[in-house]
Amino acid sequence: MGKRVVWGIALLASHLLFFAGGSVLARHGALGDFVQQTKRADAQVTLGHYSAYRDIAVEITTKRYDRAKCNAELMASSMLDDVKACVGNPNC
After folding, report:
1. Taking a C-beta distance cutoff of 8 angstroms, is the pair 55, 64 a contact?
2. Residue 52, CB half-sphere, CA atoms under 13 Å: how many?
3. CB under 8 Å to 52, separation ≥6 — which residues?
4. Rounded to 5 degrees, what are φ and ψ at 62?
5. Which pLDDT band, with edges at 50, 70 and 90, does 32 fall under?
């Protein structure tokens, strides 16, 4: 009877140890994946801003000020719409 109790406790302890270790590894992997996805999304947003600003700079360089102003206003309006949509959404 005593050996059974010791083996039962040892088995329970080993299962708890493996469960805790697996939880730690899974959490670490999930956080790493989250950081990678966030960086990828930030890079896409930054690339979009870069291309818009580059186009505005080219238009200013070629002295097409009205077109540059129009593009700047469209970009600012689009960003404001995104912010408004996010502020109105509790999941954002």
Report:
1. no
2. 16
3. 71, 75
4. -90, 10
5. confident
Which helix H or strand E contains 91, and what residues bound it? none
**Which value, in Å, is the radius of gyration of the alpha carbons in the chain?**
27
Return the DSSP state at 63.
T
How many other CB atoms are found less than 10 A from the CB of residue 53? 13
Tokens read off for 65: 């000020």
Pick from 48, 81, 55: which is nearest to 69 by CA? 55
What is the distance between the alpha carbons of residues 56 and 22, in angstroms, rounded to a whole number? 51
Is it the case that residue 61 has pLDDT exceeding 90? yes
Q: Residue 92: pLDDT above 80?
A: no
